[in-house]
Write a structure and sequence with these properties.
The chain is of the alpha+beta class and about 90 residues long. The chain has one domain (about 5-80): Sandwich (Immunoglobulin-like), CATH 2.60.40. It contains 3 helices and 6 strands; from the N terminus they run αββββββαα. It has helices at about 5, 80, 85-90, and strands at about 10-15, 20-25, 25-30, 35-40, 45-60, 65-75. A 6-stranded antiparallel β-sheet has the order 1-2-6-5-4-3. Strand 4 and strand 5 (about 45-60) form a beta hairpin. The radius of gyration is 13 Å and the shape is globular.
C-alpha cells in the first residue's frame, strides 16, 4: 500500500471495559514496552501509556492493532492535530 493511501486510511480507537484497545489506521509501531506504545497512524503519531500493555494482534497490511492492559492515557502529537481537519489541509 502506498504511503499516500496509508495516510487516507480510516483511524478509529475502541477501548472496552475489559481493557482491550482496538485501533485501525495503524501504519507502524515505532516503540513498545509494557508502559508505552508509540505508533504512527493515519492521523499522526499516537502514544498509548499504561501498565502491563501487551500487543495481542498486529496487522500492518490491514492497519489494525489490538492491545490489552491498563490504558491510562492516549496522546497524539500536537503538530498533526493542529493542522486541522481535511478541509483545512486541502484549502488551508
Amino acid at each position: 500500500m502506498a504511503n499516500e493511501e496509508k495516510m487516507r486510511m480510516p483511524h478509529t480507537l475502541n477501548l472496552d471495559n475489559d481493557g482491550n484497545l482496538k485501533l485501525t489506521g495503524v501504519i507502524d509501531v515505532t516503540n513498545f514496552d509494557e508502559n508505552i506504545v508509540s505508533l504512527e497512524t493515519s492521523r499522526g503519531m499516537l502514544s498509548v501509556k499504561g501498565e502491563n500493555l501487551h500487543v495481542e494482534g498486529l496487522s500492518l497490511e490491514k492497519g489494525e492493532l489490538t492491545l490489552t492492559g491498563t490504558v491510562n492515557a492516549m496522546e497524539y502529537d500536537d503538530n498533526l492535530m493542529n493542522r486541522g481537519g481535511i478541509f483545512a489541509r486541502l484549502f488551508g
